[in-house]
Amino acid sequence: MASGVRTLPCMTDVTPELTHLRLERPSEGVALLTLDNPEQRNAMSDEMTDSWVRAVDHLAADRSLRVVVVTGEGSAFTSGGQLDWLASEPDASVDALRERMLPFYRAWLSIRRLEVPTIAAVNGPAIGAGLCMALACDLRFAAQGAKMGVPFTRLGLHPGMAGTFLLTDVVGAAAARDLFLTGRLVQGDEAVGLGLVSRVLPRETFLTDVLATAAEIAGHAPIATRLTNLALRDGGPASLERAVQWEAMAQPITLATDDLQEGIRAAREKRAPRFEGR
């Protein structure tokens, strides 16, 4: 179990059996997914991939869920796909390899199924497909010294895991070209400047700090938070008019909630609101 993480009772059915992956509940409404194969730098093994899908399915059914945090055990976030797996079928046809890669991509990108905010807590190196999975999350925080990059072409590979979309969406076309074509790794202030991560936090208190932010988000009105999160995905609305149309539907939905009335009462009474998601 991650240091300082107190697991709360699960609000759904029994937690699925997981391999190379842990699912914990450090605070109300917050789920913590820890990639747990530190001996292989949390590489995305078949066992971990299968467990990831089961965990996401489990979380998608949990109506009490408000935030998900993803991190890695040990010194790495994840080194991405296993190299021996990538090189295991040199004689396979392109069609056969494509049929192998698509389920792998879709498994890890299933984190996008969750409507609640998702946070990648990049505790150490996030490389290749591992960084792409972090990019599929809504927010990214990095520990000091954590290196990130997409060195696919250095291995003779085209980028995968929707990286050409996700990285471009997050850092813009020019920076994405730089990172993909050079394969260089970035960290710290440069990663923040590129928009690759929102914050760089001290390594000593990293997970505690990220979980505190997750708990803060979980304390906000869940309906408003989910709708806002959905509005901002994939670069936000494609045009001003689409933004106006979405907001003219989504804001009235929140105006009709009990949570809005509670939020107004709490502001007038100068106390913390108690949102119930209705």
TrEMBL record:
Entry's family note: Belongs to the enoyl-CoA hydratase/isomerase family.
InterPro entries: ClpP/crotonase-like_dom_sf, Enoyl-CoA_hyd/isom_CS, Enoyl-CoA_hydra/iso, Enoyl-CoA_hydra_C
Top-rank lineage group of the source organism: Bacteria
Protein name, as recorded: Enoyl-CoA hydratase/isomerase family protein
GO molecular-function term, one example from the UniProt record: lyase activity
Gene Ontology terms: biological process: fatty acid beta-oxidation
Cited SUPFAM superfamilies: ClpP/crotonase
UniProt lineage: Bacteria, Bacillati, Actinomycetota, Actinomycetes, Propionibacteriales
Keywords: Isomerase, Lyase
Pfam families per the UniProt record, alphabetical: ECH_1
Signal peptide interval: none
Residue ranges the record marks as coiled coil: none
